[in-house]
Amino acid sequence: MTQLSDPAALPNDEAPPPGLTRVETRAEDGRLLSVAHLNADGAMDGPFIAYAADGRVQMRMGYRAGQPDGPATIYRDGRLQTELTYAAGQLDGALRGYDLAGRLASVVRYVQGRKHGLTECFSPDGAPLVSMAYENDRQHGPTTEYFPDGTPRRRTPYKDGLADGESLEFHPGGAPAERTLFRAGVAVEGPTRFEDPAAPAKTSLLGRLLGK
To answer: Whole-model pTM above 0.85?
Structure first.
């Protein structure tokens, strides 16, 4: 289900959090563009909300001592586009992207501002398209592409950002279709192709003429 920003939740004249000063930014026509909060040092602290031209929430996030901190949401045309989390100004946790229909399209995981863990992309029906393992902002571990039914199409191991090890492509039934061996991003063996054991047996021209 599509998640929409909530115009009823707009903080028009609500009191700021204790110890913070509310600061509004408005367009020349008086439209509210953003609401921020400043601490005693003049740094952004607490909730920050930006608004689109139609008055709906465009971005909602938190600040602590001048840096983004905590969960954040971004909307496009009133629809949820991105969910993410900051810690001390850096991306930390899962960043989730959504398509125009509100369906989950991607998940990218971060630790202290760097990709770390599994990055995944999904089709509109929720099936996996590709998954990539990251460590310290570099591909490290298996990268897998998928058929529409969710079974692996190709699997390639990575080490420090480079293909390293046995890369296998699969037939739709799961049998190996192609093998390539990589070392530090360079193919050192293959590719070697394999026939699909589930495919109909090929008949020679003579066999077809003889009805065999």
So the answer is: no
